[in-house]
């Protein structure tokens, strides 16, 4: 699916006009503070239900307003009909009233309760300056990275994950209590272990597919890292033993700490180069490239599952050199992803694609929150 129409209301500085996008590439340029990232952020709301920049909706709703709305129309994307020629395949809507703390989600006009019912229609992957935390930061970011993929490959994952969060929190309450209530803990251990095994099976199966795609991407792009780079999935405990046994064997330790220490909330995707974490051995630039390759591999797994990923690339010119930008754009084109790219300068597609090889694209100038489409004729000749 590709986002072919976006309309927002009271979303940062964005104008309320509807904008029609290409199911392929969309290039957005404009001065600092014009609203480019806000457009990506609004698209992100439809696929993630929240901002990828800030934790509170409050910062996103336009100053002086209390309710933001984002509406999007999707079509079948690059595998389907041309945009604007038929009825959209899905209509997604999200509104958030920050004063009432109320979110309303709609799919095709019908109210839906869970965010996953909205998000499942639109896999959105963000590449912005903060994305490098995936390798540089803690395991939480890497779990999110893997779980996003698992959710889109295996939609039932989300309900198991939510149940597991509820059970973990019940179990933590008992552990925090300080008094050992062994019979009660055993009841929660049984439920927790069953859900944990289910989640870890789903994560492990999808991780295997990711690993294959990642090694293909590494090989194709001739990074020279193939030999030394290893990615491994750690489920959160030693899976040669049932989780219920591990919990029983660490009862005292968990009671002392007052929370669950083993299971899916401790999972990680470990990325090492020659046996050492890449965060310790790779340069900043190498870490950036690595994360982008990991994101491309995610896109490849989803494209093999028949899903089209919408990539939001925010200010990559500041992050990547021309060679890596070309590599990224061409690979995303090959995977038939929908892509939004922001830049401050007027984009030169000829820098990314050789003449005659560029995808269909639309270009927009962003000024004071308003998008104006620029009619593009032939692609400019390569100028670098
Ligand atoms: N809640 C809000 N209400 C109204 N305007 C806002 C709100 N939050 C931010 N803005 C303004 O919206 C504009 C859009 O910011 P945005 O980050 O999208 O710009 P940008 O084009 O990506 O800039 P840069 O190139 O500097 O990253 C800014 O001028 C900002 O001051």
From TrEMBL:
A Pfam match: SMC_N
InterPro entries (UniProt xref): DNA-binding_RecF, DNA-binding_RecF_CS, P-loop_NTPase, RecF/RecN/SMC_N, RecF_2
Localization of this protein: Cytoplasm
Alphabetic keyword roster: ATP-binding, Cytoplasm, DNA damage, DNA repair, DNA replication, DNA-binding, Nucleotide-binding, SOS response
Sequence ranges assigned to domain RecF/RecN/SMC N-terminal in this UniProt record: 3-346
Transmembrane segments: none
UniProt: ATP binding residues: 30-37
Gene Ontology cellular-component terms listed: cytoplasm
One GO-annotated biological process of the protein: SOS response
Superkingdom of this protein's organism: Bacteria
GO molecular function: ATP binding; single-stranded DNA binding
Gene3D superfamilies on file: P-loop containing nucleotide triphosphate hydrolases (3.40.50.300), RecF/RecN/SMC, N-terminal domain (1.20.1050.90)
Main localization of the protein described in the UniProt heading: cytoplasm
Similarity field: Belongs to the RecF family.
Function: The RecF protein is involved in DNA metabolism; it is required for DNA replication and normal SOS inducibility. RecF binds preferentially to single-stranded, linear DNA. It also seems to bind ATP.
Protein name, per record: DNA replication and repair protein RecF
Gene: recF
